[in-house]
Design goal:
Layout: E1 6-10, H1 26-30, E2 35-39, H2 53-72, E3 77-81, H3 83-94, E4 102-105, H4 117-131, E5 135-136, H5 138-152, H6 158-173, E6 178-179, H7 180-192, E7 215-220, H8 228-237, E8 243-248, H9 259-275
Parallel strand pairs: 1-2, 1-3, 3-4, 4-7, 7-8
Antiparallel strand pairs: 5-6
């Protein structure tokens, strides 16, 4: 039997690598084609640090890349979901990783107006400033957000209700508490409408021209966090000759992690990374 190629998996914000272990999820479908290497970040030795995106990029990703290459025996492909895709692209552009190809799913590379998120983030930042409590209880906030969304969601809207049920499940199984610094950097992105470092001065998107490796970017047609234009910005910025941008019909930021949409992403990954010859990809 031919050995499956290695695939490094990078999870999103406020969750961990258990995201790739959920039933009928991305990990399940990707494992049919790849030898998977899911990693948590921050890595164990960094758990007590005040981490944010920049910390993950400059401190976690070098260690994760070394471990993945060592365990795989050579450089793996990379697939990042949401912030994991943002990390993979920023790390590839900076030379922190040197993946033979990168796939992103539901990863925004610029920001529009996302209702509810900014006030929720600002509220907790204010609470942190007043109390000195620097850890954000994601599971508690997730339940509050679920309650708010349930109130605003018509019972007849099956797609929204399915997303809410999936959200509840993910909050219980893969959510992790994060330092307030993570929220602060996210607020910077939302305020500037750009994918920047924590100072707001370095726009990571402007470094993507350094990326020449094959890149495939996947977005959901109903994703409010990473809509087409937010993904298109990354696609347009890379210098890769071989690149694709692909939509998942009715895909939202959540429902692409499980079910038939996750299966579709796995099929795209197989085609892009294994089946297609380089001169067939555009």
């Amino acid at each position: 039997m031919e050995k499956k190629p290695p695939l490094l998996l990078l999870h999103g914000i406020c969750n961990n690598s258990n995201l790739f272990s959920i039933p009928d999820g991305l990990g399940h479908h990707l494992s049919k084609y790849f030898n998977l290497f899911p990693f948590n970040y921050p890595i164990t030795s960094h758990r007590n640090a005040p981490w944010d995106f920049d910390f993950h990029l400059h401190h976690d990703m070098p260690a994760i890349w070394q471990m993945a290459c060592r365990e795989a025996g050579h450089k793996p492909f990379v697939l990042g979901y949401s912030m994991g895709g943002m990390l993979s692209m920023a790390a590839q552009a900076a030379g922190i990783i040197d993946a033979p190809a990168v796939i992103t799913a539901a990863s925004p590379f610029k920001y529009g107006l996302i209702p509810l998120y900014p006030p929720l983030l600002r509220t907790w930042v204010r609470i942190s400033a007043l109390t000195g409590y620097r850890t954000v209880p994601i599971k508690v906030l997730g339940r509050v957000l679920c309650a708010c969304l349930t109130t605003a969601t018509p019972v007849t809207n099956r797609n929204r209700l399915a997303d809410l049920n999936l959200f509840r499940y993910l909050i219980k199984t893969v959510a992790v508490n994060v330092p307030v610094e993570t929220f602060l950097q996210t607020l910077t992105w939302l305020k500037k409408r750009k994918f920047t470092d924590r100072t707001g001065e370095l726009d990571y998107l402007q470094t993507f021209h350094k990326i020449t490796t094959p890149v495939c970017m996947i977005y959901g047609t109903h994703d409010l966090i990473a809509p087409k234009e937010a993904v298109q910005a990354g696609y347009d910025a890379v210098s890769s000759v071989k690149k694709l941008i692909i939509s998942i019909a009715d895909g939202t930021h959540l429902n692409m992690t499980a079910g038939h949409r996750a299966r579709a992403i796995a099929s795209i990954a197989e085609t892009f990374l294994i089946k297609e010859e380089p001169d067939q990809m555009g």
